[in-house]
Design a protein that fits this description.
mainly alpha; 212 residues; disordered C terminus
Length: 212
């Protein structure tokens, strides 16, 4: 979609995911308060992103993961709607909180620089879009964390609970075995497909009734 005069002067650079060991080294060099166990867990769950790993150690992502694990602790095949509602509710709450924080930060920066919104409608429109974007951001993160849980459960169901070295969440073996037992290999596959479809729907901003 860009003009040829622009693309002819651009160079495409592909960024690969970091290895688990590279993420771990990055965390160790920048973190002194976290335990080795927490660092190892964050490196495994970060999907090659040092930024995600740092969030898992001390940011919002750590709290969101705890909330997902808590919901999955009493999750069953008949409680899918309740699980989805719980994630949506958390995304709603956290999205509003993050938007309010960002809005206050922008307001303070604007006041310091002397910039203000020209009209009240301009401020209202900006607020609606930003808050909605934050909610979608949180919801995608929650779905990603849920995927990790069912990914481990699928491995457990397919290979047996003894294959702990293949799990991303070695600190959640009890939950992993419970999901594997309740859903089985096929059920875990279906859950992963549903979670990925929901993630794509949220990313593409499809209406809520379609996602449901």
């Amino acid at each position: 979609g860009l003009l040829e005069t622009i693309t002819s002067r651009a160079q495409a650079i592909q960024f690969r995911r970091l290895s688990v060991e590279e993420v771990r080294q990055g965390l160790v060099s920048a973190t002194t308060e976290s335990s080795p166990e927490d660092v190892d867990a964050a490196a495994l769950l970060a999907d090659g992103s040092l930024g995600h790993a740092r969030e898992l150690l001390r940011g919002d992502l750590k709290n969101w993961r705890a909330a997902v694990l808590q919901e999955l602790a009493h999750f069953g095949s008949r409680s899918c709607p309740a699980f989805g509602i719980a994630l949506a509710t958390l995304a709603e709450t956290e999205g509003k909180r993050l938007f309010a924080t960002e809005k206050e930060t922008k307001k303070t920066a604007s006041e310091e620089s002397g910039e203000v919104a020209e009209t009240e409608s301009e401020e209202s429109d900006w607020q609606l879009k930003s808050e909605s974007a934050w909610k979608r951001h949180v919801f995608r993160r929650l779905l990603e964390l849920s995927e990790i849980c069912f990914r481990d459960a699928l491995i457990c169901a397919a290979t047996g609970s003894s294959a702990t070295t293949l799990l991303l969440q070695s600190d959640q073996q009890k939950l992993t075995q419970s999901l594997a037992r309740d859903f089985g290999e096929e059920g875990c596959r279906k859950a992963l497909v549903a979670l990925r479809e929901a993630w794509l729907a949220v990313r593409l901003y499809i209406r809520n009734d379609v996602v449901a």
